[in-house]
Each structure stands twice: as C-alpha cells, then as structure tokens.
Write a structure and sequence with these properties.
- By secondary structure, the chain is mostly helical.
- 50% of the residues lie in helices and 9% in strands.
- The C terminus is likely disordered.
Length: 107
C-alpha cells in the first residue's frame, strides 16, 4: 500500500491519499490537486516531488486505511454513504486500488 500526504506539496491540506501502486497513487494525487486545489496540469517536477514523498505502508495498515475512508464519507451521520465506504474499502483490500473520486462524487 502506498500513501501520500497532500501537505508534502506545500498545501495547507490534511488529505492523505492511498493506493495499491505508485502509478495509481500519482493518479489519485492528480485528481485531488485538480478537485481540491484547482491545479489543472501536473508538471514533471511535481510528479517527481509526489514520488519522492510516497510512503510504503504494510498490509497491517489496511485497518487504518479503512478507518480513513469511513471518516472521509462521514458515515456516522450519513447512512446513505455506507455503500461508498464499503465499495472503496473492498477495492483497497482486494488490491484493486481506490475508487476514483470523480466516480464517487457522481453518485
């Protein structure tokens, strides 16, 4: 499992992104930068900086990932988001990577 903290790029942002591979994680970071920080293009220097700050997590960290997904969708106060939580958790735990943010927002 790979992990990236958005604040490593200098943004005042506490978002933590995870994915199965480095390539998937760079894609997720690019989507986050576009959606949260209005960054439309990712220069090669930024990709290099992203890769430099990627953290490798062990399988034992999977429970923490699932907890972050649960918090991300605030399922304690919004029961209808449970399917999103379950889908994203299953994708990560089955090593298929996280569901794309844009797909989840469309729902």
């Amino acid at each position: 499992m790979k992990q990236f903290n958005c604040n490593d790029l200098g943004h005042n942002c506490s978002t933590v992104l995870t994915a199965r591979t480095e390539e998937l994680l760079v894609d997720e970071v690019a989507l986050h930068l576009r959606d949260a920080h209005n960054v439309s293009t990712i220069a090669p220097e930024i990709v290099a900086k992203i890769k430099k700050h990627i953290i490798n997590r062990s399988a034992s960290d999977a429970a923490n990932v699932v907890d972050r997904i649960f918090e991300k969708y605030n399922c304690n106060s919004e029961p209808e988001c449970t399917w999103r939580y379950i889908e994203e958790a299953e994708m990560i735990l089955k090593n298929r990577g996280p569901v794309k943010a844009r797909a989840l927002r469309a729902a």
